[in-house]
UniProtKB/TrEMBL annotation:
Protein name according to UniProt: serine-type D-Ala-D-Ala carboxypeptidase
Keyword Nucleotide-binding: no
Function: Removes C-terminal D-alanyl residues from sugar-peptide cell wall precursors.
Keyword vocabulary terms for this entry: Carboxypeptidase, Cell shape, Cell wall biogenesis/degradation, Hydrolase, Membrane, Peptidoglycan synthesis, Protease, Signal, Transmembrane, Transmembrane helix
Superkingdom of source: Bacteria
InterPro entries for this protein: Beta-lactam/transpept-like, Peniciliin-bd_prot_C_sf, Peptidase_S11, Peptidase_S11_C, Peptidase_S11_C_sf, Peptidase_S11_N
Similarity annotation: Belongs to the peptidase S11 family.
C-alpha cells in the first residue's frame, strides 16, 4: 500500500511541477520588488554576504522544515557519512513527511540526510538528532549554539525538523546566514541540489523526488529547502547561480505554494538583474604593515573579500585599514586589525587582518638594557650575600653546640 501511495504522490508532484510552468512568471522589474505577500523576505549575495533587498528581514517567524538546513549541516560537521543511525520509537512516531523508518532500523547517516533534505523526513530528522546529540533537547542546544556562532541572534530552535513549537522561531535574515554558511559545505551542496535519490529502507523502497519546486522551475538553482506547517505557512530558501554570481532568497509566511515560488523567483531575478559582485581583495593580500623591533610585518587577509553594488554604481572601492596590533609577543595568525571597503554611502564590506608570522617581544634600547641588566646583577648579588650570611650564622650555632660540656651521672 505504501508503494502505491508513494507512486501516486510522486506522479502527482511531477505533474504539479510540470503544470506549474504554465503559471505566469514574475518579471524582473527596474524597481525594488513590491506586492509581496510574505511575512518577511531577504535577498543575499552569497559571495559578499550583503543584503540586496529585505522586507521585514528581522521579523520573528516560524521556519517549519527549513529548520532542517541547520540539522543537516550539524550532522555533516559532527558525524561521519557511514555512521549507522538507529531509529528510536520517538523518531518512528513523528508526524508529517516521513521516510517510513521502523523502530530499531539502522541506516547510514548519508542516506538519512538525503531523506531529510529531499523528502523532508521528520522521522529522519529526529533519528539524526538523537545520533549526533544523544537526545533531541541536547541536539537543540547544539543548534542554538551554532546559530549564535553564525550571528543568527534572533533564532531559537527546539526541534530538528521544524514541527511547530511556539518557542521554535527564527527570522528571514538569520536563516539566510545559516543557509549561506551551509552552502559552503560541498556535501551539503550536493545533497540539496539532488533531484532524485533511490531510497532503500527496511520497510520502504522508493525513488525520492526533491520537493523543492525551484529545482524544477528556475535556471541555475543550487538549493536549498522548503517548509510548511499550519502556523508557519509556506517557507522557502532558494539559491541560484548565474556566471560567477550566486544569490539567495529567503521567504517566510506565504499562504500558497504557487505564490511563494513566484515571489522567490521575483526576488532572485532582482538580485541578479540589478547588482554586480566583484572581488575586492585576495586571500593573502597585504593591506597594511606594522613595525616591531624595527621590522615591518604585513597585515594580511585570510580570505577573499567580495563587494556587491548596484550595476549603476560608480563608487570607488578604496580600502580603509584600522590596525589594532596586540602587545608583543603574539603568535602567527593573531588578529592585528580590520579593513573596510566603503562601496557607497550605506554599504560597507569588512574583513579581519592577521599576522603571517610569530612576533617576538620588542628589543629594549641599549641604555635601558644596560640599566635593567645592572639591576638584575645587583639583585642577584644581594640575594647571594644574604644566603651566605645565613649559612655562616648557622655554622657558628652548630659549632657552639658541639663544644658544650655536660656534667652528670
Amino acid at each position: 500500500m505504501k508503494k502505491v501511495w508513494t507512486w501516486c504522490l510522486t506522479v502527482g508532484l511531477l505533474i504539479g511541477l510540470v503544470s506549474s510552468t504554465s503559471i505566469p512568471q514574475a518579471n524582473a522589474s527596474d524597481e525594488t520588488p513590491t506586492g509581496l505577500t510574505a511575512k518577511g523576505a531577504v535577498v543575499l549575495d552569497m559571495q559578499s554576504g550583503q543584503v540586496l533587498f529585505d522586507d521585514h528581514k528581522d521579523i520573528q517567524a516560524f521556519p517549519a522544515s527549513i529548520t532542517k538546513v541547520m540539522t543537516c549541516i550539524l550532522a555533516l560537521e559532527k558525524g561521519g557519512l557511514q555512521d549507522m543511525v538507529t531509529t528510536s520509537e520517538l523518531a518512528r512516531n513523528q508526524e508529517g513527511n516521513r521516510v517510513y523508518l521502523e523502530v530499531g532500523e539502522q541506516e547510514p547517516l548519508e542516506q538519512m540526510l538525503y531523506g531529510l533534505m529531499l523528502n523532508s523526513g521528520n522521522d529522519a530528522a529526529v533519528a539524526i538528532a538523537e545520533h549526533i546529540g544523544g537526545s533531541v533537547p541536547k541536539f537543540a542546544e547544539m543548534m542554538n549554539a551554532k546559530a549564535k556562532e553564525l550571528g543568527a541572534t534572533h533564532t531559537h530552535f527546539v526541534t530538528p525538523n521544524g514541527l511547530h513549537d511556539d518557542n521554535h522561531y527564527t527570522t528571514p535574515y538569520d536563516m539566510a546566514l545559516i543557509a549561506n554558511y551551509a552552502m559552503k559545505n560541498s556535501k551539503f551542496r550536493e545533497i540539496v541540489s539532488t533531484q532524485y535519490y533511490d531510497w532503500h529502507g527496511q520497510a520502504w523502497e522508493s525513488r525520492l523526488v526533491n520537493i523543492n519546486p525551484m529545482l524544477w522551475n528556475y535556471d541555475g538553482v543550487t538549493g536549498v529547502k522548503t517548509g510548511f506547517t499550519d502556523q508557519a505557512q509556506q517557507t522557502m530558501i532558494a539559491s541560484a547561480k548565474r556566471g560567477d554570481r550566486e544569490v539567495m532568497a529567503v521567504v517566510m509566511g506565504v499562504q500558497l505554494k504557487q505564490t511563494i515560488r513566484l515571489e522567490t523567483t521575483q526576488l532572485l531575478d532582482y538580485g541578479f538583474d540589478h547588482f554586480t559582485t566583484q572581488r575586492l581583495a585576495h586571500a593573502g593580500d597585504s593591506l597594511a604593515t606594522f613595525e616591531v623591533n624595527g621590522t615591518k610585518v604585513p597585515a594580511i587577509l585570510h580570505q577573499d573579500v567580495y563587494g556587491t553594488t548596484p550595476k549603476t554604481s560608480t563608487a570607488k572601492k578604496e580600502p580603509s585599514v584600522h590596525l589594532s596590533v596586540p602587545a608583543a609577543p603574539f603568535p602567527k595568525g593573531s588578529k592585528v586589525g580590520r579593513v573596510e571597503f566603503h562601496l557607497d554611502d550605506q554599504s560597507v564590506v569588512s574583513a579581519d587582518l592577521f599576522s603571517p608570522q610569530d612576533v617576538l617581544s620588542p628589543t629594549l634600547p641599549t641604555s635601558q638594557l644596560k640599566t635593567r641588566t645592572f639591576g638584575y646583577l645587583a639583585l642577584g648579588a644581594a640575594v647571594f650575600a644574604a644566603l651566605a650570611f645565613w649559612m655562616w650564622q648557622r655554622r657558628i650555632r652548630r659549632t657552639r653546640k658541639s663544644t658544650v660540656t655536660y656534667d652528670g651521672n
